[in-house]
Amino acid sequence: MTTKNIVKEIAYKMNITQDFAKEFVKAYEEVILDALNTGEEVFQRGFMRYQIKTTGGHYHYSYQKQGTVYLPLKYKVVATPTGKLRDSVAEQPVSQIEQRRRLAELETKYKKVDDDGES
Predict the structure, then answer these.
(1) SMART domains per the record (predicted)?
(2) pTM of the full predicted structure?
């Protein structure tokens, strides 16, 4: 779902214009970004948690470079679904067609080797 689709759905559900819904979505995004940029954690009970976490900032042995390299400190945004969102997605049944398609993909990716050692 794209931002355009989200705007249309909000406009329909709230019975407002798409322009107003677009401004609402834009303001929502700005509030989240501003909070994260000031170091705050954003927690929407029953929906989503946004956090800034740090990675790197240490030395690591690289087999490719045959030596120790410094991994610089970086920030990353972690979005974790909570409550209703997490539970509703986890309870969705996966169709038999989707399961068969996924199994066929895995079988072709990891072809079994026959008795002669040929694939």
Answers:
(1) BHL (SM00411)
(2) 0.62
| pLDDT tens digits, one per residue of 75-107 | 999 999 988 888 887 777 888 888 888 888 888
Other beta carbons within 10 Å of 7: 19
**Rounded distance, CA 64 to CA 59, Å?**
15
Comparison of pLDDT for 1 and 109, the residue scoring more: 1
pLDDT at 43 over 80: yes
Tell me the three state secondary structure of residue 46.
coil
| Cα(78)–Cα(51) distance, integer angstroms | 5
DSSP string, 78-105: EEEE-HHHHHHHHTPPPPHHHHHHHHHH
